[in-house]
């Protein structure tokens, strides 16, 4: 008798709306891929290789006729630094604390080969036999990437280049050897230990800054110390000797708060806020809810 009652109860439950809802298939969930920009497969005749060039456009680009500064990002592949730096570009439209820009990520394949000058120190030649391709990579940027971007997009008057570590070394090397290629230079923890700092020892004779004006250099360092810090100190001393109006330097010391592995993202954000500040937000003064005891304004 108990078995029969149990089966009857179970049958009534399975026929109930609640049980039928449990047995129903889950509702359809519509998904869509998230797009962060456009990735081009770019064949370079200079490098005799195919590279990824990734482009992020600022919010509202398609609805305006504005022209925008361009940030050329070294190590800018999709599996490199493009996505998190493009995120900083998007943050500009959300925070109103710095202005919009186009971000162009340029992929590197062999950083030691492509971002370094040929060393003269035998130890470095032995340790890095593949090095020495910086001039060719700079030619790739000058003759192929920049014209490709400027032909297709509404670019503004200023170009910036950003890189960290060996890419930061390339940024500094570009400023000193071909300063007219970009207007703004962002070097984060640059590997200025390269070639036992020999290029820095000859700066007064070799740097091509004589006719330069209105350039900006953002320089940041973490807790690396050693020959890297010494190289940065030499570069800062050289910049301090330059006449006013050539290169404006901002130096951020993160040695107490960041390592070589953790410095990049927040230093890059600081650089963008400095380079492209937005006009002050006109909010009509301090809102009432930020003032102790204040009342909201009367409704109209």
UniProtKB/TrEMBL annotation:
Q: Which UniProt keywords apply?
A: Signal
Pfam families referenced in this protein's UniProt entry, alphabetically: Esterase (PF00756)
Endpoints of the signal sequence = 1-21
Q: Which Gene3D superfamilies match?
A: alpha/beta hydrolase
InterPro entries attached to this UniProt entry = AB_hydrolase_fold, Esterase-like, Mycobacterial_A85_antigen
Question: Is Coiled coil one of the keywords?
Answer: no
Q: Does the keyword Signal apply?
A: yes
Question: What's the protein name?
Answer: Esterase
Q: Which organism is it from?
A: Novosphingobium lindaniclasticum LE124
């Amino acid at each position: 008798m108990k078995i029969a009652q149990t089966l009857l109860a179970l049958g009534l439950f399975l026929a109930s709306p609640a049980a039928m809802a449990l047995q129903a298939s889950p509702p359809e969930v519509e998904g869509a891929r998230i797009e962060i920009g456009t990735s081009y497969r770019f064949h370079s005749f200079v490098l005799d290789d195919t590279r990824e060039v990734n482009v992020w456009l600022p919010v509202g680009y398609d609805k305006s006729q504005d022209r925008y500064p361009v940030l050329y990002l070294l190590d800018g592949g999709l599996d490199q630094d493009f996505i998190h730096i493009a995120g900083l570009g998007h943050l500009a439209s959300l925070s109103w604390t710095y202005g919009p820009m186009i971000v162009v990520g340029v992929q590197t394949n062999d950083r030691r080969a492509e971002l370094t000058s040929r060393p003269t120190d035998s130890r470095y030649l032995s340790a890095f036999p593949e090095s020495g391709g910086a001039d060719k990579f700079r030619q790739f940027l000058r003759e192929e990437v920049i014209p490709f971007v400027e032909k297709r997009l509404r670019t503004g008057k200023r170009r910036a280049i950003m890189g960290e570590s060996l890419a930061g070394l390339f940024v500094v090397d570009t400023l000193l050897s071909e300063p007219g290629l970009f207007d703004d230079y962002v070097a984060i923890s640059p590997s200025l230990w390269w070639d036992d700092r020999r290029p820095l020892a000859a700066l007064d004779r070799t740097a091509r800054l004589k006719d330069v004006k209105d350039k900006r250099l953002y320089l940041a360092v973490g807790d690396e110390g050693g020959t890297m810090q010494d190289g940065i100190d030499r570069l800062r001393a050289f910049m301090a000797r330059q006449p006013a109006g050539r290169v404006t330097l901002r130096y951020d010391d993160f040695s107490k708060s960041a390592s070589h592995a953790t410095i990049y993202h927040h230093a890059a954000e600081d650089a963008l806020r400095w380079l492209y500040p937005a006009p002050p937000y006109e909010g009509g003064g301090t809102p009432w809810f930020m003032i102790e005891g204040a009342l909201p304004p009367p409704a109209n």
